[in-house]
Amino acid sequence: MTSPATAPVAVPDTTPDPVTPSAPGDRRRWLALAVVMTAAFMDLVDVTIVNIAIPSIERDLSATFGAIQWITAGYALAFAAGLITGGRLGDIYGRKRLFLLGITGFTLASALCGFAVNPEMLVASRLLQGAMAALMVPQVLAIIHVTFPAHERGKVFGMFGAIVGLGAVSGPLLGALLTQWNLFGLEWRPIFLINLPVGIAGVILGRRFITESKAPKALRLDVVGVVLVTGALLMLIYPLTRGRELGWPLWGHLCMAGSVLVFAAFVAYEKVKTRKDGSPLVELSLFKVKSFAAGIAVQLTFGVSLGIFFLVWTLYMQIGLGWSPLRAGLTGLPFSLAVSTAAGLSVQKLVPRFGRKVLQTGALTMAAGVLLYIWEAGRYGADITTWQMVPPLVVMGLGMGLIVAPLTDAVLSDVPREHSGSASGLINTVQQMGNALGLGLVSVVFFGVVDDHRATTPTGVASAFEAGFQNALWWVVAVLAVIFLLMFALPKRKSPEPRVLAA
């Protein structure tokens, strides 16, 4: 299970495009819309569907907990590393071409995941799947933009939002059902193999109905920037996920310390790249806007909290409490519904009236739900029921819904229009990076506590996982407190017009 916050941000591009939108009477554009929305739905469901099957994967492949983390974190890391470059490749070589390449690779990677014979093959396939998603997903909004005239885009983006919400709600339940049914004795494998017919249909229909388009002035690729930021993330996240199993060796600490230097080298290179040809991977001038800089920090820390919570939550229910995938999936439904309800309410009614106070209320509400969950886990122990979990999950979902929907708009409110595309791409990238980092931290905040508890208190798996779950949730509370404070730097109200950055 994961959150709708992982979905791509729908920010209309203001750059003129040489491709004329399809004529209003052209029905092909609606078929093209169906194809790209189906691909976006497939990607979102694939993210949300995996966590619920993690315990089954762990048993079937005899995967270590470190491998389990990489099955989820590897996808997020590859997706984050390639997201901005994927969008730029579409601008240069054609959005249709990159979309078809991405969906073909995503489908192939799904097949490799479904037929994986060991944890190493599954992790490698998930990395490939994330990289292909990074080619596919950025083209979706760009294709919508050039396919539909301006007066229709509002309705189309509304439909896109509905698809995102549907994917967030249906993914965990679909994963639970496919795992529980054990179709053809394949156990967890159908959660990946279900992408094959969808992906093949998307390739065939996409070739026929999507119109090719390119940006009139596409920026150059920043390959060095991609290598530096990916290397820095790997140097940080790999030791986090493997360190516990290897006894926290010295090289791991040196790698994590070295990642800071590589990040610094990345920033220095981006400054040089900006002066040289004006096409850096990250537009550093955006960070001169206080609200944007604070918003990026919020996105990063929020991604960390989600990365920690959703994986730990699944392991707690299925391994710690021994629940079936279906029971765990159904338990998550009230949370997803609460997120969707609060998200719609916050954007339409609350934020226009109360501004950033809505987001801060969301952080406090979500923290209150987490605290209630901590109390219930300790109070009821292994005897906790689904119905007892509903109140904290609903409170958490309402809080999260107040944050996820209006956050992007708040972050972009003071960003100049000409930088809206790169800013929105950076928002998506940073949240995925935070998610990968949170998944890496699970080794420290959850598995480390589980190991220590089982070594010192021989009371069984349930007690150890309960202790690990509670400890991880305390970390989530701490992160939400940081998010609440960072939100003071967001604008109180949305600015009427984005300001112009000084050169």
TrEMBL record:
Keywords: Antibiotic resistance, Cell membrane, Membrane, Transmembrane, Transmembrane helix, Transport
All copies of domain Major facilitator superfamily (MFS) profile, residue ranges: 32-496
Keyword Transmembrane appears in the UniProt entry: yes
Domain of life: Bacteria
Pfam families reported in the protein's UniProt record: MFS_1 (PF07690)
Keyword Electron transport among record annotations: no
Chain residue ranges for the region called Disordered: 1-23
UniProt xrefs under CDD domains: MFS_MMR_MDR_like (cd17321)
MF terms in GO: transmembrane transporter activity
Protein localization: Cell membrane
SUPFAM superfamilies per the UniProt record, alphabetical: MFS general substrate transporter (SSF103473)
UniProt membrane topology term: Multi-pass membrane protein
Spans through the membrane: 30-54, 66-86, 98-117, 123-144, 156-178, 190-206, 218-238, 250-270, 291-316, 328-346, 358-375, 387-412, 433-450, 472-490
Any Gene Ontology CC annotation: plasma membrane
Alphabetized PROSITE patterns for the sequence: MFS
InterPro entries: EmrB-like (IPR004638), MFS (IPR011701), MFS_dom (IPR020846), MFS_trans_sf (IPR036259)
Gene Ontology biological process terms from the UniProt entry: response to antibiotic
PANTHER family (UniProt xref): ACTINORHODIN TRANSPORTER-RELATED, MAJOR FACILITATOR SUPERFAMILY MULTIDRUG TRANSPORTER MFSC
Record's protein name: MFS transporter
UniProt source species: Streptomyces niveus
